[in-house]
Amino acid sequence: MAPPTWTSSTATTTRSRSNMIKNVLLLAGMWGMGLGAAFVQLPATQNLLIDAGYASISTAPLGIIMLGSAPCAVVIPKIISKFGEKKTFIAGSFFGIVGAIMQMIGPLTTTIGLAAANDVTPQVVLVVIGALPQAFMYASTNNLRFSVSQFSTPEFLPKATALVLLGGVLSALLGPLLSAVTRSMIPGALYAGNFLQIALMYVVFATLAFFADFKQPIADSDDVRIVVDDLSLVERQEITAAGEGTRIDGNATTERTLWEIIKGTDLPLLTTFQCLSYNIMAMYMGQLKLPMAASGYSVDSYTYALTAHMLGMFLPGLFSGQVINRFGTWSTTAVGFLLFPVGGSMFLINDSLAMFVLGITIVGIGWNFSFVGPSAEVSKICSRAEQSKVVGFNDGIMLLTVGIFFMTASKIYIAVGSWNVFNYILIGFSVFSALLSLLRC
C-alpha cells in the first residue's frame, strides 16, 4: 500500500543542493545589508544628536525604526502571501532609500544654504523623521529569518537560520567599520556620508532579493510545507491535523487559527525569549556610547567596539546551528542568556577600552545563542499557509518591545545615572531569562 502523499516547500524537494545553498547565501547577504544599515544608523544618528546637544534622544531614530517596524512586521507576512517575498523586499528597500536620503539632507542643510551655520534644528528634524520610512525595511530584514525555511528541510533549519544570521559579518565590515570612513566623506557635512552609505546598502539588498529564487505567493501556489519536529518519515505519515504538522489527504489541508497555534504550541514562549534576548542585547549596545564617551573614548573607539560586538553576534553562526542540533534549543538558549552577565561583568572590572570591547563582544555571542534557536523553532510550528499570521504575531511583539526600549533607553540610562547600576539591572534580567530557559529544558 502506498504511503500517504506529503508535499514540501523546502528547497531540497524541488531544487538541487547547490541551488539551496545559493539562496541561503543570498539571504545571508540581504541580512548583512539590511542589518548593517541599522548598525550604521546607530552611531551616525547617535553621534550627530549628541554633537547637536540632544543626548537624551540620541537613540530615538533607531527606536523609531524599530517601533515603526512592529506594525510593519504584522503586515509584511500578509503582503508576502499576496505578492511574494521578492516584490515585498524590493519595496522595503525603496522605502529605506527614501528615508536614508531624507536623513542625508539633514547634515547638508547648512552646506547647501538651507539653514544657518549654527542652526541644528533642520538636520535634527530630518534625521529623526527620515528614520520612519526605514521601519518597513527593517521589518523586511527581520522576516528573512523565516523566509529561509522555504529553502531548507526542518532538520537543517537551525543551521540555515544560523547561516543567514552569519551574513551579519558583512554588516560588521560594511556597517560601522566602513562608517568611520564615510562619516566625513562629504566635505562640510559630517555624517551625511553615513546616510548615503545606508542608502547604497539598501540598493544592494534589493539587488540580492532580485536574484533569489523565492517561491510564488501562497495565494498563487498549491504548495504546502509540512513541518514536524524530530520525527521519522513513518512518524510524520502518522500525524493527524491535530498534531504538530498538517496531514495532507489529496488536496485537503487543515489550517489552524492563530489562537489555536498560540494555545497548542510554544509560540508565546518562543516570542518571549526572542524579546528578552533582543532587548537585553539592544540595551547594552544602544547605551555603550555614553559610558565610553564619559570615559574619554573617541567616536572611532566606539565604532571598533560596535564592530567587535557585531562579529560576536554573527560569527557564531558558523557553528551555533550544530550546537542547537546537538544540545537542543532550550539548553543553548540558556547558555546564551548566561553569557550576557559574563559580558556585563567585564564592564564592572574597569573602564579600559579592552574591557568595553571584550564585554560587548561577549554580549553579542550571548545574543546569537539565545536568539537563533527560538527563531528557528517559530518556523517549525507552522505550515507555510499559517506562516503569515505566526510571523506577524512573533515579530510584531518583538519589534514593538525593542522599539519602546530603544526610544526610551537614553532617558532610562540618564535617569539611572550610573553605568554600573544600569549593568546590574541587565545582568538580573539575563539570569532570570536563563532560569526560565532551563525550566523549559
Structural notes for this entry:
It is a single chain. With 441 residues, this protein is mostly helical. Helices cover 71% and strands 0% of the residues. It is built from 19 helices and no strands. It has helices at 17-51, 60-83, 85-108, 121-129, 134-147, 157-166, 168-174, 176-182, 192-211, 233-238, 258-264, 267-287, 289-294, 299-314, 320-327, 329-349, 353-380, 387-416, 419-440. Helix 12 packs parallel to helix 18 (387-416) and helix 16 packs antiparallel against helix 19 (419-440). The chain is globular, with a radius of gyration of 22 Å. The chain starts with 16 loop residues before the first helix and ends with a helix. The model is unreliable at 1-15, 112-116 and 221-252 (pLDDT under 50).
Shape call = globular
**DSSP strand content:** under 5%
In N-to-C order, the SSE pattern is HHHHHHHHHHHHHHHHHHH
- Structural class determined from secondary elements: mainly alpha
Which bin fits the share of residues in helices?
Answer: over 70%
Number of strands: 0
Q: Pick out the low-confidence regions.
A: 1-15, 112-116, 221-252
Largest sheet: none
* Annotation field: number of helices: 19
Rg from Cα = 22 Å
Q: Cα distance, first to last residue?
A: 39 Å
What's the mean pLDDT score? 83
